[in-house]
Write a structure and sequence with these properties.
single chain, 562 residues, alpha/beta, six-stranded mixed β-sheet, five-stranded parallel β-sheet, 23 helices, 43% helix, 18% strand
Length: 562
């Protein structure tokens, strides 16, 4: 009905017949001749926004512009594949074009403004809750749809009705009460983005036009609340019993009864309409939606970015191409030939006049562009296990079981694992970093328990492995399981005060190095010093009595670097 006004939709569904059927219905409902463009994953800026047409420029001897995908989709639909993997920079460029309604080109010696008003369908194939399309992109799309396994094809009547209703849409009006109720429903469900309320208003007007009416009804507002506001909900509305009592109404003036007799009935008051819309949106919330949103947002805040595979690192020679940069062609750098020629092309007429007897194509050092690559560094999970007498007395067996469960999770993610145990007078590296799950479990199987607790030695050994992993281009993750009862200092002497001071001193470098860490307190009751060590390390603190396998796995996943 109104693709440009509503922005588009996020379609969360795996590839298959159901998604193809949904897209087929959408395409058949659009006006004849509507453009339909696909945006591949990892599209370069030159293709996304447009730029210099290198072959045409070299042939003509003057800059020739090339339209990008966004400009080509003007007035139509843009289909973004695997939107959950879209780079943040690409999403930002698309959002800027959607806000401006045009591509502003200021590059490669070109200056132009091309119209680019389109609706975006973001195909989200994510499986985990945190695998979603970029938030800025979702905010600009009215509908967030999770597609079931099958889609009914009974939409032919709606297709024909949409063709007739488009002419009616510009004449549909909406009462202020409905607009205020939709805004109040969005606020009650924790939807702070004002775009959501605007999209809901547009959706309500489109629903009225589709039904052949010129005024938005309560049913249209209900539909808009379910389709637009409910998928964006971040909290449940407060119960009526939790809300303060409204103040008593002011007494009417003496002649109010006579005035009311002359006024027509305006239907339900504004408060009733707001409550009705909130109830409609709440009923449309998918099961577990709010819990999934909370888990996803919490994971993002802890990780600082999307994804879980390891910190992204810019490289000169390997990884996924992420653009180009200016630089000198030295050993190890890789020349971006096309971008170099593209940068040199606008200057060819001037350079030929300066050097008429020079080569046909004159390239200077300021034209040189080098390829940039980015790869996701692998993670090395370092498990530091307290095997001292106090830990064995408490729950060393449970700690071993927890580590084995976490090792299996690391194996699925193709992480390397290392195991450090500390007991007696020193720490011992039972297993250097390895991808072998069998070796890791074997190193734990024969781990004896008993003796004092050299906590500082265990932390220092783990920090050394983390530093070596960083030098090898991997991202370390430290998981420390201890009851916090340190009683052996670094020099091997006994004494709890010195041992605790050394443990806090050993924790400081881990925090300064920014190593993602998790401290699991294995004591029967949470030990205060273990929490102090976690704070000194900059680690997340998790007491084992409340840490079942699911919580442990989630805690490690949250601590894993993005």
């Amino acid at each position: 009905m109104d693709p440009l006004g509503l922005g588009g939709a996020v379609l969360r569904a795996p590839p298959g017949a159901a998604r193809d059927a949904w897209l087929a219905v959408l395409r058949s409902a659009l006006p004849h001749g509507t453009s339909w463009r696909r945006l591949p994953l990892g599209v370069p800026d030159s293709r996304l926004l447009g730029g210099l047409d290198l072959s045409a420029t070299l042939a003509a001897g003057r800059p020739i512009a090339e339209r990008g995908v966004l400009a080509e989709a003007d007035g139509g639909i843009l289909l973004a594949a695997m939107a959950e993997r879209m780079e943040t920079a690409t999403a930002a460029r698309i959002c800027a074009v959607m806000d401006a309604g045009a591509v502003v080109m200021q590059r490669d010696g070109l200056s132009d403004r091309l119209p680019a008003r389109f609706a975006l369908v973001a195909l989200d194939e994510g499986i985990a809750p945190e695998e979603v399309a970029p938030a800025a992109l979702r905010a600009r799309l009215a509908f967030h749809i999770t597609l079931p396994d099958s889609v009914a094809a009974a939409a032919s009547s709606a297709v024909s009705a949409a063709q007739d209703a488009r002419t009616l849409l510009p004449h549909v009006t909406l009462n202020d009460d409905v607009a205020e109720a939709l805004c109040a429903a969005a606020a009650a469900l924790g939807v702070d983005d004002p775009r959501a309320a605007l999209f809901a208003l547009r959706a309500a007007r489109a629903a009225a036009a589709l039904d052949g009416r010129l005024t938005v009804s309560r049913e249209d507002a209900n539909l808009a609340a379910r389709l637009v506001i409910a998928p964006r909900a971040t909290r449940l509305p407060a119960n009526e019993e939790d809300q303060p009592e409204p103040p008593p109404p002011e007494p009417p003036p003496p002649d109010s009864s006579a005035q009311n007799e002359d006024q027509p009935d305006r239907g339900p008051d504004e408060r009733d309409l707001q409550e009705m819309l909130v109830a409609a949106a709440r009923a449309a919330l998918p099961a577990g939606l709010l819990e999934a949103l909370q888990l996803r947002d919490a994971a993002r805040k802890r990780n600082g970015a999307e994804g879980k595979a390891g910190a992204r690192r810019d490289q000169a020679q390997r990884g996924r191409p992420v653009g180009t940069r200016a630089g000198q062609l030295r050993s190890g750098a890789r020349l971006a030939l096309v971008e170099t020629l593209r940068n040199a092309a606008p200057w060819q007429p001037l350079r030929r006049r300066e050097r008429p007897h020079g080569p046909p194509i004159q390239v200077r050092k300021e034209d040189i562009r080098l390829r940039r690559f980015r790869h996701k560094a692998g993670t090395t999970a370092i498990f530091v296990v307290d095997a001292s007498g106090s830990a064995a007395l408490h729950r060393l067996a449970e700690a071993k079981g927890a580590v084995e469960m976490l090792l299996a999770d690391c194996y699925v993610r193709r992480d390397q694992v290392a195991v450090v145990a500390f007991r007696g007078q020193r720490a011992e590296v039972l297993l250097p970093p390895t991808p072998s799950l069998v070796r890791a479990k074997r190193s734990l199987a024969g781990l004896p328990g008993g003796g004092p607790t050299p906590l500082a030695s265990g932390m220092e050994a783990a920090a050394a492995i983390a530093a070596e992993s960083t030098r090898r281009g991997r991202t370390p993750l430290l998981v420390l399981l201890t009851d916090g009862r340190a009683n052996i200092a670094r020099d091997g002497t006994q004494g709890r005060p010195a041992a605790e001071a050394d443990a806090l001193a050993a924790a400081a470098p881990i925090r300064l190095a920014g190593i993602p860490s998790l401290l699991v307190d294995t004591a029967p009751r949470p030990h205060p010093f273990a929490k102090r060590v976690a704070e000194a390390m900059g680690a997340r603190y998790l007491p084992l009595p409340a840490a079942d396998s699911a919580r442990l796995s989630g805690a490690v996943a949250a601590a894993r670097p993005a």
